[in-house]
Amino acid sequence: MQLHTCEFHRCLVPDKNGHYQCKRRAPFELSEEDYIDEEGHWKSKRLFGFINGWVPTITVNARCNNDGKLLTNGADTKNITFYVSVYQTKKQGKHYNMSAVLAKGYAYHSEHTAYLDSLRDNQRLMLFRLVHTINWEQELATPMVVSYLMGWGDTYRSHHYTPVYWSSFISALLKHFPALSRTSPAKEADRDGTAGSSIR
Q: Residue 35 pairs with which residues in a beta bridge?
């Protein structure tokens, strides 16, 4: 179950009169039982006004927070239908049509440019132009562009790190705690000529 707590700068927003109200509409309406009537009005069982409409079956089996809501007709149904449709059909975005961008760039250069005679030069030039087409269509983050222009490289680090190898760590650990290297009596009785260790 998820307990909703109203706080400023999170869910409490002012209305046109300056009064603060929860944009999640808490506290939620209370109801002794789940019900739905002939006119489409419904309520889920809620005995405390600040707990989301959780579904016990999902909570027990999935062991996660949930907020169950009955969707009939209205804006919520429209929004969830649009979201699921876009997700299932994989709406074309700037990064989803990479193959189409490559094909378009290659077709343009094939029609408007006289390639060199050498096959190797043709292939090299084709790859260069395809990568150039991708770079031309790709969105680049401002920090990454600034990092390249300033010569700072691909990553920014505030500290220098030293690699620690697992074998060196185990050696140092067994040196200070020799009891860890002993095998258990059960393993020692069952082993068939192979030496085992409690730490691998």
A: 43
Per DSSP, the residues of 68-134 read: -----SSHHHHHHHHHHHHHHHT---TTT-HHHHHHHHHHHHHHH----S-HHHHHHHHHHHHHHHH
Phi and psi angles of residue 71, each rounded to the nearest 5 degrees, phi first: -105, 115
What single-letter amino acid sits at 47? L
pLDDT tens sequence across 96-129: 677 777 788 778 777 776 654 566 677 888 888 8
pLDDT of residue 92 exceeding 70:
no
In a 3-state reduction of DSSP, which class is residue 3?
strand
Can you say how many angstroms the Cα of residue 109 is from the centroid of all Cα atoms in its chain?
A: 38
CA angle 101, 107, 111 (to 5 degrees): 150
